[in-house]
Amino acid sequence: MAPAKDARFDVIIIGGGPAGATLGSLLGMNGYRPLLIEKDIHPRDHVGESITPSTNPIFKQIGFLEKMESARFVHKPGACWTAPRSPAGKFVSLRLGEFPPPNAPQLYTYNVERDEFDTLLLRHAHEMGVKVLQGVKVQKVLFEGERAVGVRAQVADGWERDLSARVVVDASGRRCMIANQLGLRRKDPVFNQFGIYSWFKDVEPNPPGFEGFLFLHFLDLERCWAWQIPMRNGICSVGVVTDKADFQKSGRSHDEFFRSLVGRNQNLAHNMRNAKQVRPWWIEGDYSYVVDRLSGPGWLLVGDALRFVDPIFSTGVDVAAYSALYAFEAIHATLTGGDEDRLFQDYAQRVGDGVEAWYDLISLFYKLQNLFTIYAVKKRFREKVVRILQGNLYIPESLERAREIIEIMEASYQRVMNDPDNLLRPGALSHVPVA
Ligand SMILES: Cc1cc2nc3c(=O)[nH]c(=O)nc-3n(C[C@H](O)[C@H](O)[C@H](O)COP(=O)(O)OP(=O)(O)OC[C@H]3O[C@@H](n4cnc5c(N)ncnc54)[C@H](O)[C@@H]3O)c2cc1C
Prior knowledge:
The chain is of the alpha+beta class. 36% of the residues lie in helices and 24% in strands. It is built from 13 helices and 21 strands. The strands form 4 sheets. Strands 1, 2, 7, 8, 9, 10, 19 and 20 form an 8-stranded mixed β-sheet that branches. A hairpin with a 5-residue loop joins strand 14 and strand 15. Helix 9 packs antiparallel against helix 10 and helix 12 crosses helix 13. Flavin-adenine dinucleotide binds next to helix 1, strand 2, strand 8 and helix 9.
């Protein structure tokens, strides 16, 4: 069935995070009538502060990059990481400028306070022609047969209204509005991560020459790492991610648990020795899942609503921005007479393959962190690794590059695991349980 021509809106977007606001901007700029419905009233806090350079061209395309620059978000020219036992000041680094992406508008990306970033982007979408309703919750998506035809919107005082559109896009983040309604969301069988973070003052500043770099610190527990993200006004976001079972087993308070993990990496412990917490803990749990279908008649999923993979490579806003771009292209082609069925399926395939590649890379990385570091420093592979970490695995060339590296690393992983004396094997170095 083709999209209804008499619907009040061309597209209804559920959610005003980066995915929804980017899609809205593209639709508004191109003369469509999009309605974006956001349950909260921005600014609202959100996790996900370090973004990838792959987002620069999309934010430039929608005219938003200039606004990010004017907001003076901290420039992020690269990333560093440290091993649990590396002495303070010893780290591996990757710099974006080493291998600039083709047509890169600039050689850095940003660390962003998400309350302000998301507000600016949503306001930008409004300026581009999107009708934005804030403080309004989508209660459910309306279907006629299998076709999504609109949404039921609801305000806190009970006011409810059905609104129709030619296409409905779910950008509701980890709420996964459509996937939950249709029973398409499954918990990830491997990852059951738990994240705890806050903002701090008086964290040791990054060394000269590495200002603005994201630091990842590995902790000697399986699937466990910490981020250190320098932000504006001397504030640093520091968070740890670990298997949820580790937190449950520890029987500790959030505060004690966080501090015990900080102590598991010499660099992080050194950097945090004078740190003062300036806001309450923020907890994130149970966030990894997979969704069985990313599109259907009259509907598409974008951003976290389509899948969530572990955040170790800062891929969340990359997925949000690219899925928004490709969703726009599929919707535009459909609304100008293209075959919706094929276009939406192509969209799902493209975005699904890219996110799957992220997932495989992240899984490999967790299996053997040392191996990843070795590939990153090896001259022969460094460019490939840097380009992958720059983001955007949705174009054939970058997807191929990612698949190639995944295959090579998987073969190395098997070699390591088949050799009981190999020092890279997990457990070859002492494995210390949570203190
Ligand atoms: C521990 C952790 C660390 C992370 N670190 C990073 C990082 O460093 N870099 C990075 O890029 N990403 C990171 N992420 C991921 C990042 O937070 C998300 O990928 C990103 O915010 C996705 O954007 P989105 O627009 O899809 O969803 P969101 O930003 O979550 O926006 C969804 C919006 O939909 C609204 N909404 C939900 N339900 C409804 C409803 N029923 N009706 C109306 N509105 C609704 C919500 O209020 C929200 O504003 C991290 C995630 C976690 C858990």
